[in-house]
């Protein structure tokens, strides 16, 4: 059993620096994709303040994301690359840090309580694995410190996971 903790009262850069070795330790027991995606989403959902959803949408053909492991309310099952914040991240390969999702063209409201969103596209060997999607009920929840810190955690996830399931024909 792991005891994980994060002090949300400290500066974000320090909080993320403290989370990185915890993430490495948590993911060291398995390289299985489903196990690691599940553990990672639980880590973020339980330790980052002010989230109402944390999870993954995985690449599926053609240009569609499908729901992966997550924490939070039930979610949209499929998202085309042409719609929503997750679709924009998958389509462009760029991190989407959205202060007000209701102002985002084509936003998909899986949970009407979500107000801001951070979506990080995940790549392994230049192939899109999917996206990490974080939602918050607060506007302007995410900033550059979150982008840097969560992106570093995602790199830990990518290097400690076997992605063979994602790329089977």
From TrEMBL:
Domain GAF residue range list: 50-154
PROSITE patterns: UPF0067 (PS01320)
InterPro entries, per the entry: FRMsr_CS, GAF, GAF-like_dom_sf, Phosphatase_reg/MetRdx
A Pfam family: GAF_2
Family listed: Belongs to the free Met sulfoxide reductase family.
Protein's recorded name: GAF domain-containing protein
